[in-house]
């Protein structure tokens, strides 16, 4: 394709040439970013675990509300009554579920907005 | 465990940083942006280390990541369509005689030449000669076909000879 001497010349001289020197503190700056990334990853893992626990709790409580309303009322010291109407139970379940979800998500939403503002 | 990971990552960075940075610089042509691209590439490699399937060398996989990062950055900057303004010489230009220069000066001259080349040519010359990678590996890293790489190498060599000639002239004749 092109003459051999040019290729040989380049080969010889390029082999004597090192790769570019990286800017000073390259490794240190990268390690700082790496640590931040690791912290974020661990935080996300914790959040994921917490979410699972919360949703498990929410679903568990909802099921408990649905099937064992009188027992629950007795447990929290309320007047023990016989089974309420189905619709009332359903609203109770929904209420518990929504409260738990809100408790879980509102601080995270606020945190996410703060992060966005920082960025 | 965390310390072990940190040490391992630091070692990996120290081993490959110069070549990763050089690849980034070949493409983006700016020291500051090249530093960012190289750092992003290392972090991306760390995040996706599980997807490395050992089918190619680790260096090939890492260089592919940095090449993709650099090309993506170039696209974002809208400079991937820029063409080299100086025309390619028609006939082959012989490489200049550098016997008057010491090794450091020669290396510096070549680095300057590589920086001045269009990014595709600079990238393949660096990978092929500096990293002594074979044509197949260069193709894997860049995603370009081997025939395309042969053309780029040919053009790169020609243009490099032209650039070095003019730099030598500037050096000796002001």
Distance between the termini of chain A: 51 Å
Mean pLDDT of chain B: 85
Categorize the overall geometry of chain B. Answer: globular
The largest β sheet of chain B comes out as:
none
Give me the oligomer status: heterodimer
Q: Approximately what portion of the residues of chain B adopt beta-strand conformation? A: under 5%
Largest interface: A-B, 30 and 42 residues
- Count every beta strand of chain B, where a strand is a DSSP E run of 2 or more residues: 0
As a whole number of angstroms, the C-alpha radius of gyration of chain B is: 18 Å
Beta-strand residue fraction of chain A: under 5%
Sheet with the most strands, sense and barrel status of chain A: none
Low-confidence stretches of chain A: none
| Separation, N- and C-terminal Cα atoms of chain B | 58 Å
Describe this structure in words.
The complex is a heterodimer of chains A (119) and B (174). Chain A has 119 residues and is mainly α. Chain A has helices spanning 4-16, 26-67, 69-75, 86-118. The model of chain A has no long low-confidence stretch (mean pLDDT 72). Helix content of chain B is 72%, strand content 0%. Chain B has helices spanning 2-28, 31-47, 58-77, 103-116, 119-130, 135-142, 146-173. The longest helix of chain B is centred in the C-terminal third of the chain and has 28 residues, at 146-173. The termini of chain B are far apart.
What is the element layout, followed by pairings?
The complex is a heterodimer of chains A (119) and B (174).
Chain A (H helix, E strand, L loop, with lengths): L3 H13 L9 H42 L1 H7 L10 H33 L1
Helix pairs in contact in A: 2-4
Chain B lengths: L1 H27 L2 H17 L10 H20 L25 H14 L2 H12 L4 H8 L3 H28 L1
Helix pairs in contact in B: 1-2, 1-3, 1-5, 2-3, 3-6, 4-7, 5-7
In brief, what are we looking at here?
The complex is a heterodimer of chains A (119) and B (174). By secondary structure, chain A is mostly helical.
């Amino acid at each position: 394709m092109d003459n051999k001497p040019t290729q040989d010349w380049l080969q010889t001289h390029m082999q004597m040439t090192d790769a570019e020197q990286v800017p000073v503190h390259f490794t240190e700056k990268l390690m700082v970013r790496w640590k931040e990334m690791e912290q974020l990853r661990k935080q996300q893992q914790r959040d994921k675990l917490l979410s699972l626990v919360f949703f498990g709790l929410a679903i568990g409580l909802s099921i408990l509300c649905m099937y064992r309303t009188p027992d629950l009322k007795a447990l929290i010291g309320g007047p023990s009554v016989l089974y309420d109407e189905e619709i009332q139970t359903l609203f109770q379940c929904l209420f518990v579920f929504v409260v738990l979800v809100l408790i879980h998500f509102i601080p995270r939403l606020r945190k996410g907005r703060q992060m966005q503002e920082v960025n | 465990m965390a310390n072990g990971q940190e040490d391992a990552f630091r070692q990996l960075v120290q081993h490959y940083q110069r070549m990763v940075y050089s690849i980034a610089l070949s493409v983006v042509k700016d020291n500051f942006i090249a530093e960012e691209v190289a750092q992003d590439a290392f972090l991306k490699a760390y995040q996706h280390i599980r997807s490395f399937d050992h089918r190619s060398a680790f260096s090939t996989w890492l260089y592919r990541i940095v090449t993709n990062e650099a090309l993506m950055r170039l696209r974002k900057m809208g400079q991937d369509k820029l063409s080299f303004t100086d025309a390619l010489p028609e006939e082959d230009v012989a490489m200049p005689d550098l016997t008057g220069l010491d090794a450091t000066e020669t290396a510096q001259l070549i680095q300057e030449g590589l920086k001045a080349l269009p990014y595709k040519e600079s990238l393949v010359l660096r990978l092929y000669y500096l990293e002594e990678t074979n044509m197949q590996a260069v193709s894997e890293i860049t995603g370009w076909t081997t025939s395309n790489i042969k053309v780029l190498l040919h053009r790169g060599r020609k243009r490099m000879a032209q650039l070095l000639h003019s730099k030598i002239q500037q050096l000796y004749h002001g």
